[in-house]
Amino acid sequence: MDKPKLKVKSQGVPDLSSVKRCYLPGAILESDCSHCGKSAIVDFGDDYIMYPQQNSTHTLTFYCEACEDEWELSYAVTFSAKLVPSA
Ligand SMILES: [Zn+2]
């Protein structure tokens, strides 16, 4: 007998309007300070994405603990699922 197949029932944009805070433990973004070269991180296990929406653009503020510089970078939120081989 064949393995059960996965069927995609909808390819629309997921409705995340009820999600206020989205934590992503293990997702860490890093950027190097343009003044001293030290790296700074944003850890989404500690810092959450406020009201995530598919393809929405957000601004991160990085802080360099070495020289106390701050800078902002933008990122986009995307959510996806893909079929992988079963064990
Ligand atoms: Zn710095």
Write the layout of secondary structure elements.
Elements lengths: L20 E2 L5 E5 L6 E5 L5 E2 L6 E7 L6 E7 L11
Antiparallel strand pairs: 1-4, 2-3, 5-6
The chain binds zinc ion.
Distance between the termini: 16 Å
As a whole number of angstroms, the C-alpha radius of gyration is 18 Å
- SSE order: EEEEEE
- The coarse silhouette is elongated
Proportion of residues in helical segments:
under 10%
User: Which class best fits the helix and strand makeup?
Assistant: mainly beta
Bound small molecules, which ones? zinc ion
Counting DSSP H or I runs of 4 or more residues, the number of helices is: 0
**pLDDT < 50 runs, ≥5 residues:** none
Proportion of residues in β-strands? 25-35%
Strand order of the largest sheet: 1-4
Mean pLDDT: 87
Strand tally is 6
Largest sheet: 2 strands, antiparallel
What does this entry look like structurally?
This protein has 87 residues and is mostly beta strands. It has a domain at 21-76. It is 0% helix and 32% strand. It is built from no helices and six strands. The chain has strands at residues 21-22, 28-32, 39-43, 49-50, 57-63, 70-76. Strands 1-4 form a two-stranded antiparallel ribbon. A two-stranded antiparallel ribbon has the order 2-3. A two-stranded antiparallel ribbon has the order 5-6. The radius of gyration is 18 Å and the shape is elongated. The mean pLDDT is 87. Bound molecules: zinc ion (ZN).
Explain briefly what this protein structure is.
With 87 residues, this protein is mainly beta. The protein is built from no helices and 6 strands.
